[in-house]
Design brief:
The chain is an alpha+beta fold and about 800 residues long. The chain folds into four domains: about 50 residues, no CATH class; about 210 residues, no CATH class; about 260 residues, no CATH class; about 180 residues, no CATH class. The C terminus is likely disordered. Helices cover about 50% and strands about 15% of the residues. The longest helix is centred in the last third of the chain and has 42 residues. The strands form four sheets. It has a six-stranded mixed β-barrel with strand order 3-4-9-6-8-7. Strands 15-16-21-18-20-19 form a six-stranded mixed beta barrel.
């Protein structure tokens, strides 16, 4: 049996040589290998010798002086660039199609990176923002911790200890983001601000553009005092009044003196834009539900400016020492402190979710880039087939294969970099416009976002790196394939080169890959679109037609529990006397409003403690929403407070907690409460807090009449007008918002709507790019049959692309009923 030469060596020869050259050279080597007593090492040496001859490397660079070597390399690269640019200019149709494909792929990726950069990578828009760090702490070992916002935040006594002990920071400021307040008087509305320490503006290096910052006396004064308006709020809510400094505005029925207007373009240090800033000592007026001296309350965000020569890691190490000192005062407590460069999203838990979401989005847009790479490779393969004679002549004149491959790679890099520049600019325009549109369509409950989507060096660097990687990926295979020529046949007939089997197979694989990935994107967009249409018609399980709710924050308006109880009683009596209303009820939170109580509970018949969610509702709640009681009964009219400890549970809760048993009469005990709550009824499963999912364990508890902040829910004819009239009759200065239950539902549908639009855009992009590359491959074969028209005619490609867009739009257009439901 003849000896077989090493297969990898033969494969290497097959990869580098043309068909004719391979058959001749490989045949001779195999014959000599089998006839003589040669080793496998000999065969490999012969293969590498053959490749060196065909590759024709440059002269030995060791013999050339370094300066001359750099000069030769630079001049050679410049010649490659100039030659490639001239060649691309002579084929404008091919160049425009290739650049457009790359621009779409790079632009989609850069757009997502732009959002990630604005949220998590770009420093805060302050003086020398890279020197601002934000510390966060993770506490273990404590049995209880009061939390407002995030468990990673700080209490005011903790902030004082860190501020007094640190030497690595030039200043350490604290603030409370997202403080909603009612602005009343000449101008009214709900505004969002931040409670800040006195050194907030000095640490950030952004003093007010008009007026001044806070004085020490204003920061020590408890209750209402001074306020600094944001530049945007000053312009939108106060008409850019130049005499605003010194005026008094009313927030939560407390008078505040305007002492300044923030710098232009500055909206705070949080993702949600701030309308105002006021000293932390204003907490009793604006945030009365918390005690700012509570040493066990997580509610303060910290910002520190690094001293010159100090790194964030050094500051973190110093702050960790202070954290250990605080731990010694509370046995069992273990604190891990982290300090990073501050951005709009610095909080570790939120940042983790953001990075996860960005990874998912990047995976989606990477498919677009993959299609673009396959598209570019297909275009270059078609162009290589058209240039077979040119390449064969260059090879016959002595050009090495490596030199031509480098030239072809330069050409693909020029295309990719040009496409990258267009893609970055296109991403800036389209994504900027998209987020402007999205901001205008955000639910009214969400304040404006303080996102800066402008282009900076990170975005240009990312776009450049993606462009270069794309150019290499889609250029290397066509370059290698195009130079695997039989010189004699290539010189005689350039079109014959396009019929090579390997080229046809590679082109088919690329076209098939584009179609497959495009199909994935289109199917995903279709499924999301179908899901969105289904969500528009989703039945939450209760009546939503002609049902409105007003969430009242009476604590914000200075009501005491006894005064609030009188207000609610009078409001219920007024509404029940309205003939246009069918039902009225109170609840701690309105259905689908997103609020709910969470607690740990012990349950009769089970040994473990478990997490439960619940709402406090009045007896009429179930009748108003037509929520069926499938077993037992609802609350009686006399069961209106905690003196009547009864509960209604959902069907899922009954099955989960007492499988196969009758839940009526069973008890539930909430943590830190001695009361045993008896189950008197089982209600049908409904979407209570959101449309995202139904809670596995959800309880309805009798309403605590000592609650100050509650929601009033009414159903009937023109319910909003009746509700607004009744509230204004009792307290004309009370600020509140009325929403329909359908508006609450739309808040939960909004993320799905945005995701559907995004996925549809990716699907259309994939189709556009793939259609250009599959079509270009076919048109090269047709080139000999076309008269007066380029096979890459831009007008033809633009028209067919527009047709695809129209087809996708028609296919994704919702039925009339779904559109009416969406608009409603």
């Amino acid at each position: 049996m003849p000896r077989k030469p090493p297969f990898p060596a033969l494969l290497l020869l097959r990869f580098w040589l043309s068909n004719a050259s391979y058959e001749a050279i490989a045949g001779d080597l195999c014959e000599e290998y089998q006839a003589g007593d040669h080793s496998a090492g000999w065969f490999w040496r012969q293969v590498f010798s053959t490749l060196r001859v065909h590759w024709r490397p440059a002269p030995d660079w060791n013999d050339i002086r370094p300066a001359a070597r750099r000069e030769n390399l630079l001049s050679s690269c410049l010649r490659d660039i100039a030659y490639s640019a001239r060649g691309l200019a002579r084929a404008p149709g091919f160049t425009l199609v290739a650049i457009a494909a790359i621009a779409l792929g790079v632009g989609a990726n850069t757009g997502i990176f732009t959002l990630l950069n604005a949220l998590a990578l770009r420093p805060l828009p302050v003086e020398d923002g890279a020197r601002i760090v934000t510390p966060y702490q993770s506490i273990e070992g404590l049995k209880t911790r009061n939390i407002r916002g995030s468990p990673d935040l700080f209490s005011y006594p903790e902030y004082q200890q860190y501020r007094q002990a640190t030497q690595s920071l030039a200043g350490l400021a604290a603030y409370v983001p997202f403080v909603e307040s009612a602005l009343t008087g000449k101008r009214s509305g709900l505004v969002t601000g931040e409670l800040v320490t006195c050194n907030y503006f000095s640490v950030l290096g952004r003093p007010p553009g008009i007026g001044r910052a806070f004085t020490e006396s204003e920061c020590r004064r408890s209750g209402a005092s001074a306020v600094v308006l944001s530049d945007a709020a000053w312009r939108s809510k106060f008409g850019a009044d130049p005499s605003i400094v010194g005026e008094t505005i009313t927030l939560n029925r407390h008078a505040f003196t305007v002492v300044g207007v923030g710098p232009s373009g500055f909206a705070g240090t949080f993702l949600l834009a701030a309308d105002f800033w006021t000293p932390l000592s204003s907490q009793p007026a604006l945030l009365p539900q918390v005690d700012w001296h509570d040493s066990n309350l997580s509610w303060l965000c910290l910002l520190g400016r690094l001293n010159p020569g100090v790194s964030a890691s050094q500051a973190q190490a110093e702050l960790q020492i202070v954290a250990h000192r605080i731990d010694t005062s509370q046995p069992g407590r273990r604190t891990t402190l982290r300090a990073d460069v501050a951005s709009l999203v610095s909080e570790p838990r939120v940042r983790k979710n953001l990075l996860y979401g960005s990874t998912v989005l990047m995976a989606g847009v990477s498919l677009i880039l993959l299609i673009a790479c396959a598209n570019g490779a297909n275009l270059l393969l078609a162009r290589g087939a058209h240039r077979s004679r040119e390449l064969a002549i260059r090879l016959s004149l002595g050009a090495s294969r490596g030199r031509i491959v480098r030239q072809l790679l330069t050409e693909s890099l020029l295309l990719s970099v040009a496409g990258g520049v267009v893609g970055v600019l296109m991403a800036h325009i389209t994504f900027g416009g998209f987020f402007t549109w999205m901001g205008a369509h955000l639910p009214s409950s969400i304040p404006p976002l303080a996102i800066d989507l402008s282009i900076d060096w990170r975005i240009w660097t990312y776009g450049f790196l993606v462009s270069v990687a794309t150019g290499v990926v889609f250029g290397i295979l066509p370059a290698l394939e195009s130079t695997k020529l039989d010189i004699a046949s290539g010189v005689k007939d350039e079109f014959r080169g396009s019929g090579r089997r390997t080229r046809r197979v590679l082109r088919s694989v690329l076209v098939g890959g584009q179609v497959a990935v495009s199909l994935i994107l289109c199917v995903a967009a279709g499924l999301l679109g179908r899901g969105l249409i289904a969500a528009q018609h989703m039945d939450p399980g209760f009546t939503t037609k002609n049902v409105v709710a007003a969430s009242l924050d009476l604590r914000r308006d200075g009501y005491t529990p006894s005064r609030a109880a009188v207000f609610y009683d009078e409001l219920i009596n007024r509404l029940q006397s309205e003939n246009s209303l069918q039902a009225v009820s109170l609840a701690w939170t309105a259905p689908l409003a997103g609020g709910r109580f969470n607690n740990v509970a012990s349950v009769e018949g089970r040994t473990e403690r478990m997490q439960v969610s619940f709402n406090e509702v009045a007896p009429s709640f179930f009748r108003l929403l037509n929520i069926p009681i499938v077993r037992g009964r609802a609350f009686l009219d006399s069961e209106t407070d905690e003196n009547h400890p009864v509960m209604v549970v959902s069907e899922s809760t009954a099955r989960r907690l007492w499988p196969g048993a009758d839940p009526i009469g069973k008890w539930v005990r909430l943590e830190n409460r001695s009361t045993l709550w008896r189950v008197v009824g089982v209600a049908k499963d409904v979407y209570t807090s959101s449309l995202m999912d139904r809670e596995d364990i959800f309880l309805y508890r009798t309403l605590d009449r000592n609650e100050i902040n509650m929601s009033i829910v009414v159903r009937g004819h023109a319910p909003e007008r009746a509700l607004r009239t009744a509230i204004h009759a009792l307290d004309p200065r009370l600020y509140f918002e009325i929403k329909t239950i359908d508006q609450y539902a739309d808040t939960w549908r909004f993320p799905g709507r945005m995701l559907t639009i995004f996925s549809a855009a990716l699907g259309i992009l994939g189709l556009l790019i793939a259609s250009r590359g599959a079509s270009a491959a076919v048109t090269k074969i047709m080139s000999k049959l076309l008269f007066g028209v380029s096979p890459l005619d831009p007008l033809t490609f633009a028209a067919t692309s527009l047709l695809l867009v129209l087809a996708a739009a028609v296919a994704s257009y919702a039925p009339p009923g779904a559109r009416r439901e969406s608009i409603r």
